[in-house]
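User: Teach me something about this protein's shape.
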Amino acid sequence: VVIVATGGTALMAAGPVLAAGGGMAAAGAAAGGAVGMAGAATAAGGAVVAAGSVTAVAPDSQATKIIEGIPVVGYGAAAVHATMGDSDRAKRAAAKCTNSTVVTVAAAGSAAFVVGTAGTGAIAIAGGAAGGAVGGAAGVLSESQIAKTIDNVDIKNECVQGTAGDYAKGMAMGAV
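Assistant: First, the predicted structure itself:
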């Protein structure tokens, strides 16, 4: 996933990221109008060069929503939405990403703890599932609380609302 800003417009594009000479070359395209990029920009102390065709992804597209739900990565989508002045979509992205990040950290952390203290195999799998279930509930709580700050009802309704069904689903999905 590549996030590029050009001419005051933030773009998100899905495509391969290739490391070359200490920099990152991003190439990829999604459906929509292509924007050709040339030259280099400096970000975080390294050169970031976008080559080929980079395409803006609509703020409510399925691709954007998938990116928003990827642990940690979704915060980049939230930053892009915020940069564009869209605080409700930025909050949606932050809510979705927080949920997935909490679940991932809980499951991985509990599995690692179990491996480090009790052994491997089925015990670690059970520990990861238990941690994932707890993380699923914590993720739903986090997402639903962030969603309460969203003004646009349609965008708010794209987030979990913290119902009993949301918690059950979150715990079940976290345990898997």
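Now, about its shape. The CA atoms of residues 38 and 72 lie 28 Å apart. The mean pLDDT is 73. If you'd like, I can walk through any region in more detail.
User: That's plenty for now, thanks!
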